[in-house]
Amino acid sequence: MRLQDLLKQQRLQNHYTQAQLAEKLFVSTQAVSKWEHGQSVPTIDNLLMLSDLYNLSLDELVQGSPFLRNFISLVIGIDGVASSYCLLGG
Predict the structure, then answer these.
(1) Rounded distance between C-alpha atoms, residue 73 and residue 67, angstroms
(2) Other C-beta atoms within 10 Å of 75: how many?
(3) Averaged pLDDT for residues 22-51
(4) Domain limits for position 39
(5) Alpha-carbon dihedral angle through residues 52, 57, 61, 63, given to the nearest 10 degrees
(6) Alpha helix locations (H) across 3-90?
(7) CATH for 72
(8) What are the tens digits of pLDDT across the range 45-82?
(9) How far is Cα 28 from Cα 10, in angstroms, rounded to an integer?
(10) Among 45, 59, 43, which residue's Cα sits nearest to residue 6?
């Protein structure tokens, strides 16, 4: 399943409106709408909050998104610790 579809499905299953979800994540309603329409993707921070909110692993959230899978594998080391290169804005 594509990330955009999973995000919408989870939001609806958890009985959130886009506005309610946006408020919980401290983002705009437009950001949530763009995620659900595939016009943008959530930041890593937002993906982590979404995984906690929906009780899903990060893997479950991004499994349908090759871009995010590749990005996260670059950001997160084998031991699950963010690389200092990424933390320094490299």
Answers:
(1) 10
(2) 13
(3) 96
(4) 3-87
(5) 170
(6) 3-13, 18-25, 29-36, 44-54, 58-62, 66-75, 84-87
(7) 1.10.260.40
(8) 999 999 999 998 888 887 755 566 666 666 665 455 44
(9) 18
(10) 59
